[in-house]
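ugh ok fine here u go
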Amino acid sequence: MKKITFLIPLLLITTVTFGQELITNGGFETGVTTGNPGWNLSYGVDAVQATDVVGAGTTHSGTYAGRALNWGTGATSFLQLVDVTPGETYIVNFWFTFSDFLPSTNVVIRDLAGGQNLVLTPIVPDNGRNAVNNVQYGCGIANQNPSYAWKEAKFSFTVPAGVTQVRFQYYNNNVGYFKYIDDVSIVSNSLSVEDLMPYNLKIYPNPAKDFVKLSASQPISKIEVFDILGKQVLKETIDSIRTEVNIANLPKGLYIMKVFIGETIGSFKIIKE
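structure:
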């Protein structure tokens, strides 16, 4: 029998992968008992079944969802502490609905030690709150009349130096209304990167406002820039050991830059200020 050998070339591909889930009981299936790890609750929050979700009449998934009712004694919140790594970028994802067509509620990620809210970058656009206050992600269903369908919320944040623990906070500051949340998730957005160290690649500054500079010991043939959803937003053919990439027209946020040198491809996180 004749032997046939297939030669499959090695493709040097870098991909975005997602790390370990940091939220405990994000689907509220084990209730809302206070604990760490787990939800740290304020008055007026509980886990309810589909028939108790006013408006939508269903959970987003599973048997239970979280419910927050503001009794008029101050904003009530779902809170959970998560351990994080300085310099890492994390993706926050959850689903929400309200008992009425209210314009918004807010989510923040708070550095407990420093007392500051972290900068958030919407992935699923919010109701515009983040555009005027970049440490708040706004959730609203006012534009869904007459549907109370669950809506997705998704954003990223990058952990500043020295921060090792943050708090996720979803709060209800509308007196007399129920707000619901389900399937909360926070995962690390880590990259698998081909080793471009032999080419002495440098990318700076990072974060950057208008330009990102690159230099290497061998010609950089091409760069491609992608947003957090994987959409290509920039592509340049270079063929030089030094170049300057204009990112001035890109919206602020996190991007992935793919750098091509010879047969090697490396992917790097860059932040547009």
